[in-house]
Amino acid sequence: MKEQILEIKNQLVEDIKSVNSPQDIVDIKAKYIGKTGLVTGLMKNMKDYAPEERKEIGQMVNEIKNEVSEIIQNRENEINTAILNKKLESESIDITLPATEIKEGAPNILEKVIEDFEEVFMSMGYDVYDGPELEEDKYNFELLNIPKGHPARDAQDTFYVKDDEYLLRSQTSPVQARVMLSLGGTEPVRMICPGKTYRRDDDDATHSHQFMQIEGLLVDHNISLSDLKGTCDVIAKKLFGEDTETRFKPSYYQFTEPSVELDISCFNCKGKGCNICKNTGWITVAGAGMVHPNVLSMCGYDPKEWNGFAFGFGAERCAMLKYGINDLRTFYNTDLRETRNFDRKEQD
Ligand code: DAH
Question: Which of 44, 169, 179, 222 is the most buried (most CB within 10 A)?
């Protein structure tokens, strides 16, 4: 028996040298301590010995079993540690490598200008409304005092969609009519509506078949042109800087009387004259005026009782001026180099 045990030990010492993988461990366990393993075989042979010998032999077999298990276990630990180390090494991160640049987004500047408008007007108690881009002729023209066949329609080369009744709105002013009608002529109106508008213009640096306007309307009692002037002053200062001045020049719109154009003092040259203001010191940014009594009454407000003002800003124009962009088309192309530039301008 002793020789047998010694032989098994020697064999194990040899075998263990070539154990290098988890599968080798499985195999060597089976060979020595598995069901039909060499050490297990020794235990099975116990019955062949005389009872008085069994105790001593049993001890020897137990010892060899423990010894063999320990040797295999140690090898298994070594192999597992080696595998783990290798894995850690291959997954290690070199913190000295340069990081990949993260492209940070920023609000689109056209959107930002619109948000500035919304913020200022909401702080003055205005609500922000939406209106359909596919509009009825009735709202886009008729209720704004521009009846069918009126020459004022020619100024807005309109995309008609169906039977001269439906069109892509050529201005955001129809939302004035929609809001007044929805309020029923009984309560004051304070609204702005930023939105897309469409005209059959050829696209160039200052025209686009699709552009954005920011419409505004206030209807209440005893409103005057100076209320409109004060309101325009607030938004002009917020958008273009505290030292911005405003002035009105006479103009003509069918839905306002009197009608004006809003000029702001040139923020670039401060009135001295430069190429942005075409050497006049002033830049036009909106059309505006006192709401025409016909519009009020067609939209359910009694003009003897109610009056108000309205305005329409060109959103792209404001953004172009504010951020020094000289081609309107850049807002609508998808060149990331340009839109990223917008991001940078915004972050300046
Ligand atoms: N809708 C006008 C346009 O597209 C702009 C405008 C002028 C809007 C005067 C108004 C206004 O509300 O009162 O040219």
Answer: 169
